[in-house]
Amino acid sequence: MSAGYLELSYLQVGGAALLILVNGGISLALRLDLEKRLLLAAVRTVVQLLLIGLVLQWVFSVSRWYVVVALMLAMALIAGVAAVRRTGRRYPGIWWNAVLSVWASSWLITAAALFGIVDVDPWFTPQYAIPLLGMILGNTLNGISLGLDRLGEELTGRRGEVEGLLALGATRWEAARRPVRQAVRTGTVPIVNTMMVVGIVSLPGMMTGQLLAGVDPVQAVKYQVVIMFLIASGTALGTVSVVLLSYRRLFNPRHQFLHGLFRKV
Amino acid sequence: MAEPLLLEAEELVRRAPDGTVLIDRVSLVVRAGERVGIEGPTGAGKTVLLRALALLDPVADGRVRHRGDAVADRDVPRFRSRVAYLHQSPALLEGTVEESLRSPFELAVHRDRAFDRDRAVELLAALGRGASFLAKQRDDLSGGERQVTALVRLLQLEPEVVLLDEPTAALDPETTSRAENLLVRWVGGGERACVWVSHDPAQTGRLATRRLRVEGGRLSEDGADRAGGEVAR
Q1: A86 three-class SS
Q2: Residue among B102, B178, B98, B176 at smallest CA distance from B137
């Protein structure tokens, strides 16, 4: 394949692996006790990426809509589960809420991209569908886990305030509004911050990848802008969705705060 | 007694998530003009009972009626504006005392009314605090001052029944006695009532027109029924 980039051999990948020894050395010298985790992380990086490489290679070669959709389903499911695993407080139903939010928001935005904005033909072309969804998922998952975690912290830390409001005649929405707002803010702030400094402090991974692959910088920038907006809207939708679903679970129609549902992990 | 029946609880049962019974088939009626004192050891279920009366927690069984009517879901906020519960260590919003006192008027249920500063000052004066107290910051308040603020915040809303959970636990003796007098005057002979949880039998003796006792989640009459009012069924 004569691509616009230099192909890497496994030897070269091995060369990069040597660099991780720097971290190992630092850990040993400072007794950070991180060597084992570092080794595990390095091995996982290699194994996971190799596996996904094989899967992608297969999906790209088959290029059937149902294969692409199946992979996209699996990705959304894993992202939903991963979002909950990062939270400190959970309630019954949180897994379902997170998976539903991740899935609905990321699919909606990816669909908008595939059918409208980027207008891919056919829509399931794996070269577009998979990376687009992947980037949206990665960020949505982050927003959802931050939002969920913050909601748990707010509702537990401000339980007195929330219940004080309810006792004075507040509706469940009036009582929960402030924690809900804080949670949505927390979930969406990172992507907004990223958008603020993108191109100044960091070059996004996708754009870097396209540049490395020899794509015209202006094209790469256009793609990146589109991706940024897709990610931002996916994150906002997912975070709002999971926070509102949680709110409905934690406050019943009788305007009672079911704080007993929370379990610290 | 012919006084109107304000609040009525029928066979209330509340269980902990693990199934433990916290209050067991508690029935209670509160009539206008009554000051019901509830005593009982720590962990007996006094707070659970008050919270259940305020519909703050789901109950496993039983009903609460307001002036003879069951309370539908959508009427719960209005019910709580009439039958108001005060937490033992109340949470106040960040900011000044005045901001805390103003905050309930932003709720839909109180929106037809406005904060009345003169009334607030009057209530504060009854509790031995001057008008300058309004400018104090929440974070500078002692536990007792928070209770004073929360009590004023509640009474200014003119509920019919107040459910008070150890409202004087953090107060000095003088403020305690002022709070007791204020409550007695506030209930008056008219359309209001109060249910007061206290760990201090002497206080219940001074205040209550009817004394009840919670023990092991069960409610019973305490014997010393001074006013001869309706007793727990």
Answers
A1: coil
A2: B98
Q: Which domain holds residue B49?
A: 5-221
Structural domain count of chain B:
1
Residue A33 has pLDDT above 90, yes or no: no
Residue B233 maps to a domain:
no
Residue of chain A minimizing CA distance to B59: A256
Q: Note whether A166 contacts B154, CB cutoff 8 Å.
A: no
Q: Which of B81, B100, B107 to mutate to test the interface with A (most CBs of A within 10 A)?
A: B107
Which segment, A156-170, A208-222, B11-25, is predicted with the most confidence on average? Answer: A156-170
Domain assignment present for residue B84? The answer is: yes
Strand-pairing partners, residue A90, are A263
pLDDT, tens digit, 9 for 90 and up, residues B143-168: 999 999 999 999 999 999 999 999 99
User: The domain spanning residue B126 has which CATH number?
Assistant: 3.40.50.300
Asked if A168 lies within 8 A of B58 by C-beta distance, the reply is no
Chain A residues with CB-CB distance to B87 below 8 A:
160, 163-164, 167
The CA distances from residue A213 to A59, A208, A216, B132, in Å, are 21, 9, 9, 70
Q: What is the pLDDT of residues B167-188, one digit of tens each?
A: 998 899 999 999 999 999 999 8
Per DSSP, the three-state class of A202 is strand
> Do residues B89 and B99 touch, judged by C-beta distance below 8 A?
no
0.90 surpassed by pTM: no
For position A100, what pLDDT does the model report? 96
